[in-house]
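Q: I have two molecules that I believe assemble together. Could you output structure tokens for the complex as a whole instead of separate predictions?
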Amino acid sequence: MTSHAAALAQPPRAQPRVSPRSIRRILLLGAAVTLLLLVLFPFVWMLQMSLRPNDDIMGYNLRFVPTLENYRALWTGNFPKSFANSVAASLTSTVLSLAIGVPAAYALSRWRFRARRAVAMWILATRMAPPIAFTIPFFLAYRYLHLLDTVTGLAIIYLTFNLALVIWMMQSFFDSVPRELEEAAWIDGCTIWGAFRRIALPLAAPGVAATGVLCFILSWNDFFFALILTRTQAMTAPVAIVNFMQYEGWEWGKIAAAGSLVMLPVIVFTFFVRSYLVRGLLAGGLKE
Amino acid sequence: MAASTGSAGRAWNRSHAFALGLAPALVVLAAITLGPAIYLVVTSLTPLNLVDPKSALDFSHPLGNYRDALTDSRFLNSVWVQAKLSVATVVLQLAAGLAVALLLNAHSRVLEAIRTAFLIPMVLPPIVVAVIWKVIYTPDVSPLHRALAAIGLPLGSLITNAGTAIWAIVVAETWEWFPFTMLMTLAALQMIPNDPLEAAAIDGANRWQLFRYIVLPYVRPTLVVCGLFRLIDSIKAFPLIYVLTNGGPGTATEVTNYYGFVQAFNFSYWGYGSAIATMMVAGVFLLSLLVGRLDRGVGNRD
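A: Yes, here they are, computed for all two components at once.
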């Protein structure tokens, strides 16, 4: 198990012939690949199901002609609308939380004041609370505010996790931007927020992008809030998938295709932010 | 307050400007977290339900919901189911995550690509994870059930059997989240210095001893933090249960979160649901304090 110990003990060098070490290396790679295939099998199975013709949806012969008929069936139904709702709610919430959270993170990074630690703890605590605790009060309040079943209502409740994440992550990004440049700008007569806009923000731009992507993924992945706070008008894609199961009979091809479409943006985005993943995860978990 | 009347004035101006930048976020945070938290606790002191909306202000038995909960066998059962699910998934995730991390911990381009691919279950939307496992656990379409039948070991549905349903969810939940421990453990493994490993190897330590006495002590703090983070998150488990078993059969997979959801949104007993949610927040808060303490402990060692 600790083959790395031996591997690290000596610098790698070209082996003249097949040595026990390179045999072990091949065995290790073989084991890793086998394990990966086993672990990803359920995932791959759903993907292939989405491409299977409907009359052979339960087939297990892998030599079939892939078809997009399941995706086409989705396109003609209500699914595009719920997909658009997902995009709208996630984007709105991301933009809002960046607009409010980035300046706040900058202030927390640069300004020493007494309650700083308490504010940080409060922000972290909101990431830990179980969603059901937010859902009941929000549901009751939305009934009066007429925000049930609206994209706006969803975007607002997504702020409960996004805003904390933005402040948490951006504060550490700003901490790593040297403050000397801004201090020089202040002395030259630049205002605090002028220096923020011209110096700190451009330097932290990659962090803003990564944080924005994480916010989008978190909102996109939400199922619980959307299940409770939407009915028909603002239904998001994850809720639509469940409705395929419960109300429209078991159309496995459509279900698999919808699942594949919902995970597509997440897979693509994750690829771009994978180096920031750990930081985002430690701010309280990637998913709710 | 002229901006150029000395350093005291400037410092005051600066604080003023920072406060202006921070204020909107704090106001919004208060409105969307503190406000609902207070509303939740207040509601938990009333018998509020759909039939009697006036009960929103009925504080005649403020602790009635909490007293009911203590004698509600379905609630107590949900806490027990939650405990089983949380402990089993966390232990399995830590074991699987650590094992895979140890397997993949070597410098190689191929292994790096494999490491990234292993992250897929964790980043999938939870609802997609639920769909994936619904396929695996539904005998009609499942490749697993078909393969077992083909070798003469037909298997009944695991998710409609009260004895196995919770374990079916444990497997799916572990699959979804072991990459988290794997990722964190890999990061910790890269921090282990070479010297003690080399010295022990020269002294004739075998691989198990290297693992037990050198590698494990180095990664233990990471495992503890991972375990607590996952423990807190396991309390939020919802989509898997909703899609795979709906809390059933009976109440076999009804965790506390799910029971609170049923009380509040299926039966519209918002007062009682709020009391359950309040107790969950208190539980999570206690666990968070523990994480904070351990987190600091880990930081101090560096």
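A: One point stands out. Chain A has 14 helices and no strands.
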